[in-house]
Specification:
Layout (H helix, E strand, L loop, with lengths): L1 E2 L1 H11 L4 H10 L8 H9 L4 H12 L8 E2 L54 H7 L3 E6 L3 E6 H5 L10 E6 L2 E6 L12 E5 L3 E5 L9 E6 L2 E6 L4 E4 L3 E4 L2 E2 L14 E4 L15 H9 L2 E3 L2 E3 L5 E3 L4 H8 L5 E7 L11 E5 L2 E7 L9 H7 L24 E3 L15
Parallel strand pairs: 3-21, 5-18, 18-20
Antiparallel strand pairs: 1-2, 3-4, 5-6, 7-8, 9-10, 9-15, 10-14, 11-12, 12-13, 16-17, 19-20
Length: 414
């Protein structure tokens, strides 16, 4: 997508995690203001740019005099020739020790000690998702997980959480389906798993197995909650869930504490913005103690994953309304940059979600681009916190510092 030079500079600041205050000052003092198009506003929204910054950009654009020529949004480059000095390549970076995994489950009565081995132990390909996701975040190599993707919005807002902001729940023929408002939401909320890294926060580990939403459910009286499943939680049709390759039952908690869960009143579950009703961390801890795990996934026709989760009758009774059924249909759009690939539309009397299918041939893998890229790999990323996240200078390809053996917890709700 072509943007003005002034907007391209603002996007660089956003991707680097620069604070809103600094970006507003930059916009106010920039001599190269330009009017924003609707497409540019949507793109900034997908990056997590605040309403204040976008309003400042619109205001400055309305006062422009001579618009500057548009430039392309910077994407990872693959140079045909490298000038002196040569850029560092992936092999020249010191090897990062693999993450020591969190402790495997001490099995409960609902879990067995059956262990499996299969081709799934090989890291899944990220090639299918690279082109579509790179405009909206950074690819980071994380020890133990390989190449993961972090959305820019998670850098802008350190309190951002998967399956919380900018989305809602629909009840579909595949069970509970997370419909995201992000243009990039078709991929990381329906494929792969989310991991909370000790130093950089939430990252997405790709996989090619589709699901309506990969979350763990909990119910406690008038409250319900959901949390992103970790990469160690794998689902195999006909076999069920495994955790570190050990088969586990429907009531297994996958080591997820209350910090990972979004708890809301059941009667708010189907609201358009359920994130508005997420309880505080202190309240979530009490709800969590009284809650029951529900990992109710089954396999339908054509090996389709069905996420039954919270009983739909429970939700209907709490809301006092009929829960409308939505159909999931496949379509094959181009998985390029900037397109809204997951759409909800009305067809006659039926609501339909169009979900994109993965192409048969994947695009270029980030590890291949990294070997030829002029952008260096970062190995000095510090802890992600409100005081330090703005100082992280992001590049397209990075390596994250190793984590401790214990699972880290997301930041608290307000």
């Amino acid at each position: 997508m072509k943007v003005s030079p002034a907007l391209a500079e603002v996007i660089k600041l956003v991707q680097a995690g620069v604070s809103e205050e600094v970006i507003l000052a930059y916009v106010a003092n920039s001599p190269n203001a330009t009017a924003l198009t609707a497409e540019e506003i949507l793109y900034l929204n997908d990056l997590g740019v605040s309403a204040k910054v976008m309003a400042a950009l619109v205001h400055s654009g309305n006062n422009r005099t001579n618009p500057a020529p548009a430039v392309a949004v910077q994407q990872p480059s693959v140079p045909t020739a490298v000038t002196t000095p040569p850029p560092p390549v992936a092999q020249s970076i010191p090897v990062v020790t693999n993450i020591a995994p969190v402790n495997p489950p001490t099995e409960s009565a609902t879990a067995t000690t059956t262990y499996i081995t299969s081709a799934s132990s090989t890291a899944p390909s990220v090639n299918y998702f690279y082109d579509s996701l790179s405009p909206y975040g950074s690819w980071i190599e994380i020890a133990g997980y390989g190449w993961c993707w972090q959305p820019t919005v998670a850098v802008v807002d350190v309190g951002w959480r998967p399956y919380c902001d900018r989305g809602r729940w629909l009840y579909s023929d595949c069970g509970w389906y997370w419909l995201s408002d992000y243009s990039w939401g078709w991929a990381p909320f329906h494929y792969g798993r989310w991991h909370h890294h000790a130093h950089i926060g939430w990252v997405w580990a790709p996989d090619t197995c589709w699901g309506p939403a990969w979350v763990s459910w909990r119910v406690a009286g008038d409250y319900c909650g959901w949390a992103p499943l970790p990469p160690e939680a794998c689902y195999r049709p006909g076999f069920g869930f495994t955790y570190f390759n050990a088969h586990v039952g429907f009531s297994f908690d996958f080591g997820l504490s209350h910090h990972y869960y979004n708890f809301i009143p059941v009667h708010r579950f189907c609201d358009y913005y359920p994130s508005r009703y997420v309880v505080s961390s202190a309240r979530a801890q009490n709800v969590y103690k009284d809650s029951t795990v529900i990992n109710n996934y089954i396999v339908g026709n054509n090996n389709t994953i069905i996420n039954q989760g919270i009983n739909v009758r429970h939700v209907a009774a709490a809301t006092g309304t009929e829960i409308r059924h939505v159909q999931i249909r496949d379509h094959s759009p181009s998985l390029g940059r900037g397109a809204k690939l997951e759409t909800l539309e009305k067809q006659g009397s039926q609501l339909v979600v169009n979900r994109p299918q993965l192409p048969k041939q994947p695009s270029t893998a980030p590890m291949l681009l990294a070997k030829n890229s002029v952008h260096s790999l970062r190995t000095d990323l510090g802890p992600a916190s409100p005081s330090t996240s703005s100082a992280l200078s992001r590049t397209e390809f990075q390596k994250a510092a190793p984590e401790s053996a214990s699972r880290t917890e997301p930041g608290s709700h307000n």
